[in-house]
């Protein structure tokens, strides 16, 4: 089955291809299917933004579409950056956004944080289905690691034995992350729908 990932984020597309291709899906980015649009994320939650992106691509492609909205919530920062993770404080680079979080936590004892991923899967009939994964952890004292993208160099998952996500093999993130958890819920649902 063909499945379009509603994003222009190459890192995210790569992760989804690695997760879904072994399960028998032909996974394409929206660009690979000549869907060229950048959906404005006007929702107030991860769920709303995922639905906006999936619906916009589905309305053009008319085939199954998967979109997600994900981000980092830091407790001591009042849940920021949250839905604004990709554009936190209007800063232009991932490094600058990571530094802003580290600066914001400089005098904070509570460094707890969590990644959240909400997937919206729109099926062949155009019906949306939502799946949410949560990955708890803490924020490191400084950047470490070369793997991953976004906030991976400063996030230490609760199951990572003190290492940042970017310091671990990509296979760790593929099996433990917020996105992997949300995809796991999606896969269970798809198998149930297919009667497997």
Question: What does it look like?
Answer:
The mean pLDDT is 92. Helix 4 (170-176) crosses helix 5 (178-194). The chain is globular, with a radius of gyration of 17 Å. The protein has helices spanning 10-20, 46-61, 94-104, 170-176, 178-194, and strands spanning 2-5, 26-29, 65-74, 112-122, 128-139, 155-157. The chain has 196 residues and is α/β, with parallel strands linked by helices. The chain has a six-stranded mixed beta sheet with strand order 2-1-3-4-5-6. Strand 1, helix 1 and strand 2 (26-29) form a beta-alpha-beta unit. The protein has one domain (2-194): Maf protein.
Mean pLDDT across all residues, rounded? 92
> What is the spatial order of strands in the main beta sheet?
2-1-3-4-5-6
Helix content: 25-40%
- Compressed to H and E, one letter per element, the order equals EHEHEHEEEHH
The total beta strand count reads: 6
Strand content: 15-25%
The total domain count is 1
Low-pLDDT parts are: none
Number of discrete helical segments:
5
Enter the CATH topology name: Maf protein
Query: Which CATH top level class fits?
Result: Alpha Beta
Distance linking N and C termini = 15 Å
**Shape descriptor:** globular
For the largest beta-sheet, the strand count, sense and barrel status come to:
6 strands, mixed
| Helix-strand category | alpha/beta
Can you tell me the CATH architecture? Alpha-Beta Complex
Instruction: Supply Rg.
Output: 17 Å
């Amino acid at each position: 089955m063909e499945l379009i990932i509603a994003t222009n984020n190459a890192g995210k597309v790569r992760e989804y291809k690695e997760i879904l291709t072994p399960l028998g899906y032909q996974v394409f980015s929206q660009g690979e299917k000549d869907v060229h649009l950048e959906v404005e994320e006007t929702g107030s939650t991860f769920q709303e933004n995922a639905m906006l992106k999936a619906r916009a691509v589905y309305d053009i492609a008319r085939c199954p579409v998967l979109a997600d909205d994900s981000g980092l919530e830091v407790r001591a920062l009042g849940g920021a950056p949250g839905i604004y993770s990709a554009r936190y404080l209007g800063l232009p680079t991932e490094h600058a956004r990571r530094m802003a979080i580290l600066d914001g936590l400089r005098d904070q004892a509570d460094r707890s944080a969590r990644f959240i991923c909400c997937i919206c899967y729109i099926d062949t009939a155009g019906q949306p289905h939502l799946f949410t994964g949560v990955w708890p952890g803490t924020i490191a004292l400084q950047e470490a690691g070369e793997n991953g993208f976004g906030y991976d160099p400063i996030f230490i998952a609760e199951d990572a034995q003190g290492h940042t996500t970017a310091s671990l093999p990509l296979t760790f993130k593929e099996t433990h992350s917020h996105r992997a958890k949300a995809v796991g819920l999606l896969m269970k649902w798809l198998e149930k729908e297919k009667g497997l």
